[in-house]
Every structure is written in C-alpha cells, then in structure tokens.
Amino acid sequence: MSRSDDIAECVRRALERYFKDLDGEMPSGVYDMVLRNVERPMLETVMKHADGNQTVAAEMLGINRNTLRRKLTDHDLI
User: Roughly how many angstroms between the first and final C-alpha of the chain, as a whole number?
Assistant: First the structure.
C-alpha cells in the first residue's frame, strides 16, 4: 500500500465513522467539510516541513505560490 493509499484509507475510515455517528440523520455539506478539515492541517504540516518557506511549500504541494498564499490567508495561517 502506498503512502497516498494510507491517507485515502484514513479519510475513508473517518467518513465511515462520521456517517455512523449521524445515526441515520441526513448529512449536509460533506464535500466542504472534508476539504476544510483536511486542507488546514495539510498546509500547516507542509509549511513546517518547508521551514516556513512558501516557495518550497508551493513546490511540495504542486501549486502556485500565489495560490498557497491565498490558502494560507484563508486559513489564518499568515
């Protein structure tokens, strides 16, 4: 199993737990909820491993540095 498969499996398990905890209630906004709860810790962790260097972090993430800055601002990380 690859590392990306490990991450996908963690998300899958968390979502299964989430649906189980709903106990039959209809969920709403699952897509935005998952992105919100995954993006911030991902950004925090990548920035830590890039020693705060946004150019390096953007390269690690495979996104434009301006996009990274917007996401960091959106999550109040800068």
Answer: 35
d(Cα 30, Cα 54) in Å, to the nearest integer? 29
Question: Can you read off the two tokens belonging to residue 36?
Answer: 């919100």
Q: What is the pTM of this model?
A: 0.78
Select from 19, 14, 62, 16 the least CA-distant residue to 42. Answer: 62
Q: Is 26 helix (H, G, I), strand (E, B) or coil?
A: coil
Give CA–CA dist 14/10, Å, rounded: 6
In whole angstroms, give the CA distance from residue 14 to residue 26: 17
DSSP-assigned letters across all residues of 51-75:
TT-HHHHHHHHTS-HHHHHHHHHHT
- How many residues are recorded in the chain? 78
pLDDT (tens digit per residue) in 4-32:
678 899 999 999 999 999 988 999 999 99
